[in-house]
Amino acid sequence: NSRTKSLLSQLEKINLDSILGEADNARYITSKILHLVQSQEKTRKEMTSKGSTGIDIILSTLEVKPFNLCGYGYKDCLCGGRRANVLVTKGGTQILLQLLLTASKDCPPNEELMVLLHTLLAKIGPKDKKIGMKARINGSLNISLNLVKQNLQNHRLLLPCLQVLRVYSTNSVNAVSLGKNGVVELLFKIIGPFTKRNTSLMKVALDTLAALLKSKTNARRAVDRGYVQLLLTIYIDWHRHDSRHRYVLIRKGVLQCIRSVTNIKLGRKAFIDANGMKILYNTSQECLAVRTLDPLVNTSSLIMRKCFPKNRLPLPTIKSAFHFQLPVIPASGPVAQLYSLPPDVDDVVDESDDNDDAETESEVETENDDDKDQLFKNDDIETDINKLKPREELGRPIEELKMYEHLFPELSENFQKYDLISKEPKPFVPDANLGGPIVVPTAGEE
User: Fold this and answer.
1) pTM over 0.70
2) Are 177 and 219 in contact (CB under 8 A)?
3) Which of 58, 315, 364, 441 is deepest in the core (most CB within 10 A)?
């Protein structure tokens, strides 16, 4: 403990000096602190304990010293478990975003520095619910996107940038902004055509794409460019080539993208037109024998249920297992029109996203954007306790029950203290000695 405190005090002293040569010394001290953090669990707890200034000193070092000269051990010093939470509460997100903005002004930017900054942001991003808003206000939202555009073949830098974009995309406003800048098209270049190289990059790209497609604006953009057919083709390729089921997460990631696209009416129509029902049904049948593939079957079932044409009852067509015949069918009118429709026609009008364009233009971020799913209320669930309580009704009227009143005097008597002399009731007044000691009568006393 004394060794750690000594190193931190030396690092704090270096922060106060403006000598450029002290950067090497700061890097040396940082490496020592890193070694202690990695080798001693007690040191890790001490760095993040309440009242400790370890994280503050490290963050101040990042602010006042050139980051690329202070050592790259900060990735392990700052991130992981409780340290990431403490880092967020200390304002580490803003510091890293500012460093990213400053480093991006170099031409060309330092690749090693960019990899490290994005790795740090990807690790602490899930701990900070406001990181998307902070990145947009800071102006560093498009830095990661530009790096992706310029380094599609540089997988070492591409992977952490996609991880950061995945964190940014959880914010609806950021998702729309990134979609307008062409990130959806870039991600489809990464996930297709089929290849088993860089599967970790493929998994991150699919997760990022699924988060972006939750925005209806991005989903319509994907449908207009014919990406629904491409997603089904990619899923078939992975289904055929993954005979040992080693890439279930990638296959599920493709299904999540399809599920996000089919949240809108145009996506469901494109899915039906691309023969998606038959594709998912056949692949699900082949997955039933393997229990580890149940997540794929469940997700496929949700997509098929959502996209299957809806019909009103009674169903006179072959699509129903039961046949309900109306007693009287008029010769003309809406009922006759429904009965005259062919079997494959969806007779329920889907107006779920007719006003999506107007809603998209008015998308404004609120403080609880990230809690929408948790605060979602199901209208079918009754929450009024009074309505949920069963109503107790008497089997007989009150008049018939009065005949039993003398059997239960405690239900109707007015309990008052009677005056033993006048035999008249008087208001009940508690005794003054009511709080005093209790006197137990002795033997022979009444």
Assistant:
1) no
2) no
3) 58
